[in-house]
Amino acid sequence: MSRTILVTGASDGIGAVAARRLAERGHRVLVTGRDRARTEAVAAAVGGTGFVADLSRLDDVRALAADVLAATDGRLDVLVSNAGGILGLRRLTVDGNEATMQVNHLAPFLLTHLLADALRAGAGIVVQTASEAHRWGRIPIRATGADLTLRRGYSPGRAYGTAKLANVLFVRGVAAHLDDLHAVALHPGVVATSFGTGSTSPLRLVYRGLARRLLTSDEHAGETLAMLAAGTPGAEWAPMTTWTSGGYYDQRRVGRASRATHDPALVDAVWRASAAATGLPIHDLEANRAKNP
């Protein structure tokens, strides 16, 4: 059955590959990216609609959600949150959030909530591109709640790992906080794309030169992302067919996420902190929590 699927971060790399694969299977694909020319080129190639948005601006995320709702008449089957990256020196966005955390986690967190009713009207699926780098992440819980600011011990790599940890915690939290939605996290492999190009992190060197020959191809990783988007939540992992909601997958295998991702208190604390950082009302989250104890 054909689905309507939104893929973020689809102007190049694995997002563009996933968009093409999904379109080849007969799905209606909508794509987003920061670069207008590349985003529109991918949209034209898949016969879909392109949206330009900068995830470092939450107003862009809100406008994107409104445009998607208008284009889909309020019904969306799958949201593939693939946009993200390793950034440079610590900086705050116009919204006052640490930039790596906002682009990789807070923006898709907000977008999911804004599209939640549309997703409920469809297949109700959220696919989140995560990373094994989540193991480097640390999110302390202070008296005021989970700290997503990275004020102490900042480095581009640590910031990225912490944002990816938040991604996996978000997927764990969907079942507890959002009725009738299913979410899954994917580590697509270390992919030989332009990822990390704009970063000052030493990790960018992995994506250059001879090291690229050892990396996963964007075609392979994009196909895996498309498999999850076209798959169905089920009790067990059946490659290319079913996956477990709340699960973490390492390429085409069941992955083993870090111990921190299995801590319900951390899942809840990060959810609350993310809601506060994106301007979502806590009482709405409490209402969902009451229905999903």
TrEMBL record:
Oxidoreductase among keywords: yes
Alphabetical list of InterPro entries matching this protein: NAD(P)-bd_dom_sf (IPR036291), SDR_fam (IPR002347)
PANTHER family in the record: PHOSPHATIDYLINOSITOL-GLYCAN BIOSYNTHESIS CLASS F PROTEIN, PHOSPHATIDYLINOSITOL-GLYCAN BIOSYNTHESIS CLASS F PROTEIN-RELATED
Alphabetical list of Pfam families matching this protein: adh_short (PF00106)
Species for this entry: Agrococcus jejuensis
Keywords: Oxidoreductase
Regions crossing the membrane: none
A single GO molecular function term of this UniProt record: oxidoreductase activity
Protein name, as recorded: Short-chain dehydrogenase
Record-linked Gene3D superfamilies: NAD(P)-binding Rossmann-like Domain (3.40.50.720)
